[in-house]
Amino acid sequence: MTVAVTDIVDTARYPLHDPGGEGWVRAVESVRAELRESGCSVLRDFVAAEHREALRAECASIADRAYYEEQTVNVYNTAPDDSLPDWHPARRTTLRGNAFVAREDIPAEHLIHRLYTDELFHRFLADCLERPQIHPLEDPLAGLVVNIVNPGKEHPWHFDTNEFAVSMLTQQPRSGGVFEYCPHIRSAESENFADVGEVITGGGRDRVRELPLRPGDLQLFHGRYSLHRVSAVAGEVARHSAIFAYSDRPGVVGSAERTRQLFGRVTAAHGTTARTDDLLD
Ligand SMILES: O=C(O)CCC(=O)C(=O)O
Ligand SMILES: [Fe+2]
Question: What is the reported pTM?
């Protein structure tokens, strides 16, 4: 039997079933205030306690479907550019050791998939993010992913391409694997290379916040302006998190090049640029 989304979510705290109601408005106001202050808001225990083990087990059962290929990246995910001066943060590269399970490999009945497509969930998120509407991506791979950080691996410092990120820890490592972020270290007007460079070389710890997360917590985050990472996972248990990607526009699909980097493949939805050869057809 499929469980309704309003049964998965702790609706006593987050009344998804009552858009615009008193509890809804209270929850939304508190998220908005936190996003303004720090670019990050955690909706603690968003998934009701009785569903948290299923949430963990479902994602763990598909973790081996992730695409593993360690890549050398910089914080901006830009191509190497030797013409930049030595001090420039874009010159510093690290190994990105996390791996993503693609949306098409996540069964439709899994809790995270049901949340991802749910209209009340969309409406609630849009309200929290102060947007008229948000839309799931039309991308069969990048729309919803499980981010796997195995023991000994890390998801290094970076900025996101999207202005906002919605994610949920589903499995907690025994130690390490901490989400760390620097609230609004840059803005649309200012890159602030000096501070970014300091943090990615291990300094500037006074700017860094560590975020304790538990499975079932929902996180809203302004990843385009707040530098962030998942520190190296220690112990035997991998860190798993679901990442729900939305856009202000309907119909968004990632570029073929970026898709291939992240998933090792593309689909028909990624268009004709998906070819790997230079033949006419
Ligand atoms: O897994 C997480 O909690 C963070 C993931 C992340 O920063 C990303 O995928 O851009
Ligand atoms: Fe990110």
Answer: 0.94
